Amino acid sequence: MSALDNMQGAPAPSFLRANAGELLGWLLLAAAMLVLPAFGSVYLTYMGCLVAINILATVGLNITVGYGGLMSIGHSAFLGVGAYASALMTIHWGTPLWLSMIGGAVAAFVVGLVFAIPALRIKGVYLAVATLAAQFTLSFVFQQWTAVTGGDRGLSLPAVDIFGLGDLGLYYFVAVVTFLACLGARNLFRTRLGRTIIAVRERDYAAQVLGINVVYTKLLAFGLGAAYAGAAGALLAAFLRLVNPEQFTLLVSVFFLAAVIVGGRASIVGSILGAVFMTLVPELLNVVIEHAAGDGADMARFSSPLREVLFGLMIVLFLVFEPRGLVGFVQRLTGKTEAVEARVEH
């Protein structure tokens, strides 16, 4: 009996040791989001809110692309669906932010399923083209349905005041939602449902033989990614107090796709790192270039193109030397060889 007790109790310390680094990372992330307004300026709080929204959207795209294996180039269109849905709820019904955000997520989930159903019978580049069609179709709706969306002028929203804290209350709301959404996505892919999504990504025919409903699983992966995007779009609308078609173009979809690739596919941590990199590095490059150019220097007028060139070069070089993305670099530092989230146990 004592030997059995020892066998049952032995894995516990190793399990704790294996997850200590991950637990510490989540605690540090929560602490950083909590104390940022206390030690940072208004600009840093603004950037922190924008980073959190981009993290939420990137996690959603990684659920579809990384975990589900479904290429999507129309992610920003689902942000637009969530943003417009939440804005209309706020303007016409006066709903609170949390309810508008849920409405935006549900609307994006439904619209995502509508475009996913006919597209799931195709794969690879053909699926990418189908999602590209969704991007242009929804962009056309945002721009031309002026009676509802306001056309190019868009919709203006009132300021959000949460617990009487103004913009600071909005920041904490966005931070909490993003943190819980990331934690929920991380735990999802440690459940049977999450493993099913990964199994379909790896071998859909084999998964079907084992009795897995492949179509339902793919629809769920696409819909969940769209729902995350819809929630991010609702938060973006409340954050900017403005919704217009220029916020949800193809370039924005490419931005989020690049965040997934740079951060690391099929990794929640990679989504966080990729969104932070794609949001903050251009700002840092802008500061460095302006400082190097000096006041009145001729180089100042080339600062914006130079920033784009350097940023693109950084992405290319990074992916050449670390194809697994930023999460691969972190795993190398911590001694891990594969992402826990994407591992399928047999």
What does this protein look like?
The chain has helices spanning 2-9, 11-39, 42-67, 75-93, 97-119, 124-144, 146-149, 167-188, 192-202, 204-209, 214-240, 250-263, 268-293, 303-321, 326-334, and strands at 155-156, 242-243. With 346 residues, it is mainly alpha-helical. A two-stranded antiparallel ribbon has the order 1-2. The chain is globular and about 60 Å long.
The tally of domains stands at 1
| Computed CA radius of gyration, to the nearest angstrom | 21 Å
Indicate the proportion of strand residues.
Answer: under 5%
By CATH, the topology is ABC transporter involved in vitamin B12 uptake, BtuC
Main sheet? 2 strands, antiparallel
CATH architecture: Orthogonal Bundle
Low-confidence stretches: 1-18, 338-346
User: Please, how many helices?
Assistant: 15
N-to-C order of helices and strands: HHHHHHHEHHHHEHHHH
Order of adjacent strands in the largest pleated sheet: 1-2
Average pLDDT confidence is 85
Residues in helix, %: over 70%
- Report the count of strand segments: 2
Amino-to-carboxy terminus distance: 29 Å
Q: What general form does the structure show?
A: globular
CATH C-level: Mainly Alpha
